[in-house]
Amino acid sequence: MSSPVAAPARLRHDYDYLAALTPGVLNSARLLAELMPADETQARAALAPRLDILRGQMLASPFWLRRMIDHGLAPRDLRTLDDLLHFPATSRADLRDFGPEMPELDPSSEAARQSVLVKSSGSSGEPVGVFKDLADCVHMWAVLRFWLGALGLALPDQPRVTLLCALPGGLEYESRLPTLNNGWLVRISTVRQNPLARLIASDPQVLFTDPAGLHWLAGQAQAPRPKLILTSAQHCPEDLRQLLAQRTGAIVLDYYSTTETGAIAWRCPRDPSQWHVLTPEIWVEQVQQELVVTRLRQSLLPIVRYRTGDAGRVCFGRCQCGRTGWSITDFTGRRACWFSAPNGGKADAWQLAWLFKYHNLSDFRLTQQGAQSFQLELAGDCTELSALLAKLQGALRNMGWPEPQIDAIRVARIDQRGDKPEPFRCTRAPAP
Amino acid sequence: MTFDLARIRKQIEQAPLSAPLPVDLGTAAVSDLWRLANLAPADDKYWRQWARANWPNFAQQLGMLAHFLAISDLRVASVAALRAGRASAAEVLPQFLDRVQPLTGEMVRANVFRQEEFLRRWAEALQGQIEGETPVDSARRLQSLDYRKTLAELHEAEEARKREFNARAQALKEAAERDAAARGWRE
Predict the structure, then answer these.
(1) What are the sequence ranges of the domains in chain B?
(2) DSSP string, A243-302
């Protein structure tokens, strides 16, 4: 068990300022629940008035002002979603290089005084600073309210929400949730002592975690009984999702989100191949194979055609769950990777992610090179390499490799394709 | 006389990319419009005067206009408009060049909005109408596309942001210091 390395959370305990955001949260949840027209042309027309939000944001953002001047564009040019295609995309590199110039920020305003600059977790690459206003900070509760409604779940007054975190920082805290029926949020770290006992004691109705947390939970003797488990941040194997649903009796909802954009889409519980886009607040384009996100809601940070680095197809239609709208299919964000198992099948390499929870995803890469051979490249500090290798060998055995051979090498840095790291990959030719 | 803007733009979009025409060829191609309309083209004196006027993108614009005339129905529609209106080059060109003054050749080539503005301004200068639109609709669209107005607004907004630079940097610094208070959420 490692010692916590994260600085303690400095939470504000004057919750009135959050309670004042409740009407906005309720409004967002209501908007997300609104039905889209069954016809795509009409649905696009229904979204077009929300471009007005972008026009205002861009005119107040130094980054976008300069960009529009450089590209001969005007906010007024943006009248339809098709017009958006002619605006330049933004990337993680833009956030890194021009992040301070991006927000729409009146320095003397109360909104500016309440905003924060957060670092993305780095799970999707190099951490970058992301500017968030207060409404951004509580927006997840609006999305949660929408999901609860969509799934037919109801929460009691003062619901308990637990955030189960497998990150190495060991950060824990408790906080009131004025925007969610005066509930409570408890963050529990699997790195600290007795996480299971504290998780059971927290008795959450809603449990937020990620696939690493789900793997940890699946290996425990006991499990809590929440109504809803939410997972994000990394690829979640379908069998893991089903296993946890069976063990806990909860609906396990996988959602797609980034620190930069907020929640983007949620995986349909009826048809897991479909990820329903959170319209009307999010618009997703497919450019080549890449998913490009525009945020159509009020925020001090304009997110306009943000290149996520994730891949998928965007299509409009009616899902078997009854929902009409845009969905992402063939979603291969988070760099899904399948290893070729000795039995001829395939194994989800991300099952091994929890072993590397102390490593930045861009600092290691595990490559399957042959039937039993793997190469582990390590760029960051690793003081306990032999222990890591022993765990990795054990895990690979459990996944079906009787004699895995792991060649561990130190490298200065891991070369990667595009903006996102690729911590797992398979270069072995598929079996004929 | 009407300009089928949708058709002209489609023809432009489908034409292969080519280098902008040099000024002399541009001048000849535009002058041909008046000849084809049985009108006198502008003489060299005017062209020399226009080349020296305060239109920094004159050569690029002339090259793009000539290119569009060569590859689309813009030429036919322009000649028809000139036959109907019998406007002289000295009446048409300065008005057009004034109104498209900030548009560079690259904008007109690659930016759909500025290309539309450029073509609409040309039709306006020739007193033509846009197919399928009332004159009021066309005027409103041109007002919305007017890049001279946009550029002034954008520069004004940019100057205002620059005046806030120090206060803004301080606000961002304080926002970064509040980072710890916002941590704990994982998306």
Answers:
(1) 2-145, 147-187
(2) HHHHHH--EEEEEEEETTTEEEEEE-SS-TT-EEE-TTTEEEEEETTEEEEEE-S--SS-
